[in-house]
Amino acid sequence: SHDTIWLTDEEEGIDSYFEIGYNIDPITNQVALNITDFAMPEDKESAILLWNQQVTDLKRILGA
Question: The whole model's pTM is what?
Answer without folding.
Answer: 0.61
